[in-house]
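Methods — Computational structure assignment.
A single polypeptide chain was analysed. Its primary sequence is given first, followed by the predicted tertiary structure written as structure tokens.
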Amino acid sequence: MESLSLFCLDTYRHKDLFSGLKYPWEAIERLHAYLLEQDLGKIEISIPPGVLLIDPEKISIGPGTAIEPGAYIQGPCVIGQNCQIRQDRKSTRLNSSH
């Protein structure tokens, strides 16, 4: 049984990414090229101070998404609507030995 038969992609916005694949992890190899084919650069929220966007022309963020100050987002990427993006807490902790 092919593992993609376990998922219903009929209503999935990015189902073309999985077209012709047998296993879902095969999409990783084509993800970068797929993202560059998308209509990127559409940021539909206000970006709070302290959020770092690298290549914002290659980033799309849907409405209703909340982004914490300190978050780092590098394009190309697509973030859907009503998502939560948080900062990496590990990189912001102080080392107690210093």
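Note: The two ends are 54 Å apart (CA to CA).
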